[in-house]
Amino acid sequence: MLSIIIVLLVNLLIETSVSLTVKVPGDPVVSHVGSTMILPCWISPPESAEALEIRWYRHNQFSNPVLLYNHGKIQDVQEESHRNRSSLTLRSDQSGGLKDGDVSLRLEKLRVQDDGSFRCYVSGENSYSSEEVVLKITALGSSPVLSPKPLDDGRVNISCGSSGWYPEPSITWTSDEGRTLHPGGTSHSRGADKMFSVHSWTAVSLSDAQLVSCSVSLRSGELKEGRLNIQGIVSSGPWKALFLTFLICALLGSVGFILYKYREKLTGKKPVKEICDEETMERLSKEETNTEEPKKEPDCEEGTQQKLRKEVVEDVNIEELRKHAVEITINREIIHPDLMVTKDCKNMRDQPEYHHIGEEFPFQLCAFGAQSFSSGRHYWEVELVQMNTSPKNFWIIGVMKDGNSLLKNRSALTPSAGFWFLCSDGPYGFYTNTDSSIRFSLTPRPERLGVLLDYDDGQLSFYNVTENKHLLTISSRFSGSVVPLFNPGIRSLITILDCPKPVEPAESSQPLLSNNSDSGLTNEVKSEGLI
User: Fold this and answer.
1) Other residues' Cβ atoms within 10 Å of the Cβ of residue 268
2) Model pTM greater than 0.70?
């Protein structure tokens, strides 16, 4: 009789031990770096999981979980790299949550290190069950940059490079007819961020192709492509191009010399020096003077310098700019994990525990605007100084192509990769990221920076709002949507401002930029980056 009772108890325990079963998807879950993903896991048949233990962990990390729910709440026992990035969530809109046994995991700000398996473990008093969910991480890198170099035999050596990929991408060369071209060599490298860079080269002639394409792709089929027309490069050759350049420069120099020598006959005007000698500078001083008190008449050298300074200075009508003001907020879904953003998505700075290594600018500390633009004019302002402090020395402000991933290194920050910005790099001054980078100094340093995106005209302009001055305009060609780009540097805050509504004048006909001279100089940078 005792043996029968023991058998019945054992069977009862066995039935209880298999009564709890969790289910997960059969296929891997795929997502991009920087995005948010849900790893589904649920109890079948449905039963409440509110009183159960729910543990998500990586391989052989049972005691160091990604997330632990027990005694009705999430416990503060967590693997450090997933802190503040993991939570329990609903696997679908129809899910009933924990009450129906939905124990799915939500992961935010995905990293390359998240690639791999996650185990869903659920246990009660007398039973437990666990299953594995495979997460595949991908990162779509920068657009390939093609660089040609003519060879002595009439061919062109073309190199192709791209960075920021995961997993390791493949590279393919094709002609305009769709024929595959054989590469001369291909190499892959992997940085400290675990991302892959790829470089390849091939030598082609006009008999091979006129339009050469370089495609970098993942196994999932996602790819980016760059193209180069080699017809003009091959036909000209280096010596012919050099000769034509020399010839053009010589012709321009001759024309300029002739115009200089005969300027009096052509224009009816004499050189400034002669005007000074004939005491005609009085007309210039009258144009500058509106008071009864006489001014000292400048000599020739002084008068010329005053006119140049007046031409270089560009005043700006801030009220006119603010007519194009838009509200900008930070996209909290795609920010670097070492950045902090306030609840109103207007303020950002680096985490207090963030440690920057080296002297190079921390390019990776970027945040992107939640608003995207594909036409029209859009203006916003950024505060670069806090109360009782001096203006920030380190920051990046500009725009980038919508859909780009988090920044990894400076080499990827090019117009051809979809980035346009102005950088303040402390003692190294200010510079643009254009293909021919422009470095310059600004005094005083901007305390409030205005940004005007003129999408249709392909211009990105920067303004010192407190000084009412235009600083710089980057000219390019945009395609697709672009979003604002911000980088606060280290150890200080930047704030996106809500622009006040402009005061409407009685008659407003002034342009965005007002220059006191018709022949004023313009700080304009040309960028031929195509995206």
Assistant:
1) 7
2) no
